Amino acid sequence: LLFVNQLQRDLEEVKELLTKATRKRLRDVLMMEKHKLELEIKNQPPLKPKEVAEEEKSSLGGYTVKINNYGWDQSDKFIKIYISLNGVQKLPAENVQVNFTERSFDLLVKNLNGKNYTMTFNNLLKPISVEGSSRKIKTDTVLVMCRKKREEKWDCLTQVEKESKEKEKAAYDTSDPSEGLMNLLRKMYAEGDDEMKRTINKAWVESREKQSKGDIPMDI
Q1: pLDDT at 119 > cutoff 80
Q2: Contact 178, 220 (CB under 8 A)
Q3: How far apart are CA 95 and CA 112, in angstroms?
Q4: Predicted confidence band at 179 (pLDDT cuts at 50, 70, 90)?
Q5: How far apart are CA 83 and CA 109, in angstroms?
Q6: For residue 85, which phi and psi values (nearest 5 degrees)?
Q7: Fold topology of 1-43
Q8: What is the C-alpha separation between 85 and 44, in angstroms, rounded?
Q9: What percent of the chain is predicted at pLDDT more than 70?
Q10: pLDDT greater than 60 at residue 216
Q11: Which residue of 32, 123, 137, 168 sits 20 to 30 Å from the alpha carbon of 208, by its own alpha carbon?
Q12: What is the pLDDT of residues 125-160, one digit of tens each?
């Protein structure tokens, strides 16, 4: 990749020298070098799509920001991801690029207020149509349109989200109601602030006292 870039720079310099050369012998030498460089560049193997994307990123100037905030919606045919970027509508259209695969997309916004922005979604929940997917530039927003291969509802965007939800549900979905309630209380206690922990502790003590008096049969 670096070799190809070097050849391109050499070729540009030879062309520049040709515009300044006046002696025939020197021009002939430069023309031979120009043809040689053009042939070398032509014979280089083409870049693969992934390499093109990496080359695009490596050639970016300025500071690159990874986008983490987004909103999403869906219709029968599309998954729609909304990314807020102030002033994005002022950029040339070619500065907003999205590469799609059947289970992913990669967004690159170049030179927006001196910064570059990237967002990558891997392992989409279901396959999408690369040809039918696109992006739209709106006021302060980029809309990524992923065309569903099948017209069905998505519960979430990625396979990772689905697995996470299933694990969480399994932890609190049990045939024993008291066990499910205990698991829920433990989660609330672990994630709660001091006030939440005091409230749960108080409820725990009161339930123990009632149980010891025979007022309630179930241990919560």
Answers
A1: yes
A2: yes
A3: 9
A4: low
A5: 11
A6: -145, 110
A7: DNA Excision Repair, Uvrb; Chain A (4.10.860)
A8: 38
A9: 76
A10: no
A11: 168
A12: 999 999 999 999 999 999 999 999 999 999 998 988
Q: According to the 3-state scheme, what is the secondary structure of the chain?
A: CHHHHHHHHHHHHHHHHHHHCCCHHHHHHHHHHHHHHHHHHHCCCCCCHHHHHHHHHHCCCCEEEECCCCEEEECCCEEEEEEECCCHHHCCHHHEEEEEECCEEEEEEEEECCEEEEEEECCECCCEEEEEEEEEEECCEEEEEEEECCCCCCCCCEHHHHHHHHHHHHHHCCCCHHHHHHHHHHHHHHHCCHHHHHHHHHHHHHHHHHHHCCCCCCCC
Give me the residue label for tokens 């499910």: 180
Fold of 64-148: Immunoglobulin-like (2.60.40)
The structure tokens listed for 22 are: 């006046």
Alpha carbons 62 and 199: distance in angstroms, whole number: 51
> In the chain, what are the domain boundaries?
1-43, 64-148, 159-192
CB 116 within 8 A of CB 108: yes
pLDDT digits (tens, 9 = 90+) for 55-103: 555 555 568 899 988 999 999 999 999 999 999 999 999 999 999 999 9
- 115-121 and 63-66 beta bridge pairing: parallel
